[in-house]
Amino acid sequence: MTDSTAQAPGAAALPGDLTESTPARRRFRPKGSVVVMTLYLIFLLLPIYWLINMSLKTNAEILGSFSLYPRDLTLANYAKILTDPSWYMGYVNSLIYVVMNTVISLAVALPAAYAFSRYSFMGDKHLFFWLLTNRMAPPAVFALPFFQLYSSVGLFDTHIAVALAHCLFNVPLAVWILEGFMRGVPKEIDETAYLDGYSFPRFFIRIFTPLIASGIGVAAFFCFMFSWVELLLSRTLTSVDAKPIAATMTRTVSASGLDWGVLAAAGVLTIVPGALVIYFVRNYIAKGFALGRV
Amino acid sequence: MNKTVNQKAWFLVLPVLILVAFSAVIPLMTVVNYSVQDTFGRNEFFWAGLEWFSDMLDSDRMWDALGRQLIFSGVILAIEIPLGIFVALNMPKSGFWASFCLVLMSLPLLIPWNVVGTIWQIFGRVDIGLLGYTLDKLGITYNYTQDITAAWITVVVMDVWHWTSLVALLAYAGLQSIPDAYYQAAKIDQASRWAVFRYIELPKMAGVLMIAILLRFMDSFMIYTEPFVVTGGGPGNATTFLSIDLVKMAIGQFDLGPAAAFSLMYFLVILLISWVFYTVMVNLDKRDGV
Q: Tag placement on chain A: N or C end, fewer CB within 10 Å?
């Protein structure tokens, strides 16, 4: 009798214990995790901090003394970039071709992704695979042929050349990401809309596009990002008029090689576009990199 | 999802087909063209058959670059995958801190690759970089432009810094999809932390981890910009990976024939890995039942 009374609270506590399990796990786990995450984030942020730190110093201070923070805070490096056309035009050029590329990629990828997600047609699997191989293609293989192709059609050193070249990996990327999002939309929606007398274009624009708005946003973000971070092709295809910021930076290193402050400031400015929108896509970063699967 | 058979869907795919054919097939044909021809200059070409291919297969240059490439990819996978899983397991599950970690962790992923190189180039310098300066003060000889070991460590650490977050984010997404009931069941069975990881978390993450491994292998296999900015492929040829070597050959020395043969063989390897990747993706889609 005493045994059963002693057991009863324990048995009764079992379900309670279970419901408490999540807070209990939380209470227990953060101890170690906080340390791990803090160390990891410090590892990630330290090099970036160092770049920002240097961008706010004068060259004399960078080379003359070693300090963990700028003693003599200056914005001169940023001022130089934002007032000197040979610097800021690099950003303008990059932005132009990146935006062009994003628009082109999305425009062609949207219908294609819809086709892949809804219909089966002759050769669809091969085509889908072939697109993937282009996402994976090493830009180094294409650098020289691109140079010759775009030179021969007179597009060398234009923004559209870089935008088209980046379509090599961004169109497949956009198709895969969008297809990943579209397959999550029930097919019944399409069928109901067609029964209601919607034509395909009208259905696509009025009903379907709003449903996958987040997918379009993510695809646009990734096209933007991959075009923005790419250097090899954009450098090979441009010389003066469309020279991207990345190339401007490398050339300054090799030519003068000494203006560390300006180089650091230019680097910081290239991080800004990503840092600005990162908060909005934070939950989709993994999905985007994994081509819409995850 | 059951797909309807509809050949008209081809019209929707056509723009993509034309665009990608223009930017992929035509250049690739140029490469094929160069790979079987030789020139005396002045734009006169003649048929060379498979000579360049056998030349490249016999030369040490390509094999050395391939060897370095495989070691590099192997090393970064061996570090990034376990580290990424470890970080993912330690991430906050939800709320403000989860978003906080996600945003900060994504930051390195979105930095232009040449800037990643620049950051580490500066960071590792003995005179002005925090890392180089600290190591120097600790009495460790560290010079990534002269010393092969230091160059390798710098390039590997840079890649770990750059891409571990991707593995962590993918693993984290896999973890998030595990229903709470699984953990409760494990709790009833009094499963150890290790058992929970081994029998619940790891199998549930298997799909995304496969993607992570393939993506990292793929992207490290064609890495160019970051090591090029930091070490320029040196000291000597110590960090000259496949892409760096190829660009040196094609644009630096303008050896079109060998470079084209090299490109095609490089591309075949990529094609093979893409196929593995595709198979994994398709199986994953099937398993999810969508």
A: N
Domain hosting A91: range is 83-289
Q: How many helices (H) and strands (E) does chain A have?
A: 17, 1
Residue A18 has pLDDT above 50, yes or no: no
Delineate the domains of chain B, giving CATH numbers in brackets.
Answer: 60-288 (1.10.3720.10)
Q: What is the pLDDT of residue A252?
A: 58
Domain presence at residue A16? no
Nearest to A249 by CA among A88, A61, A79, A139: A88
Are the Cβ atoms of B9 and A278 closer than 8 angstroms? Answer: no
- β-pairing, B37-39 vs B4-5, is unpaired
CATH number assigned to the domain comprising residue A94: 1.10.3720.10
Least confident segment among A78-87, B108-117, B247-256: B247-256
b/e B139-170 (16+ beta carbons within 10 angstroms → b): eeebbbeeeeebbbebbbbbbbbbbbbbbbbb
Judging contacts by C-beta atoms under 8 Å, the chain B residues touching residue A138 are 221-222, 224, 242-243, 246, 266-267, 270
> How far is B73 from chain A, CA to nearest CA, in Å?
15
Q: CA-based angle B59:B62:B67, to the nearest 5?
A: 120
Domain count for chain A: 1
Q: What is the ipTM of this complex?
A: 0.84
Sequence-distant (6+) residues with CB within 8 A of A54 are A62, A260, A261, A264, B122, B128
Closest in A144, A230, A271 to B250, CB measured:
A144
Query: In this complex, do A129 and B99 lie within 8 Å of one another by their Cβ atoms?
Result: no
Burial class of residue A68, CB neighbours in 10 A (0-12, 13-18, 19+) = exposed
Q: Which of B190, B287, B106 is nearest to A18 (CA)?
A: B190
The pLDDT of residue A39 is: 92
3-state secondary structure of B289: coil
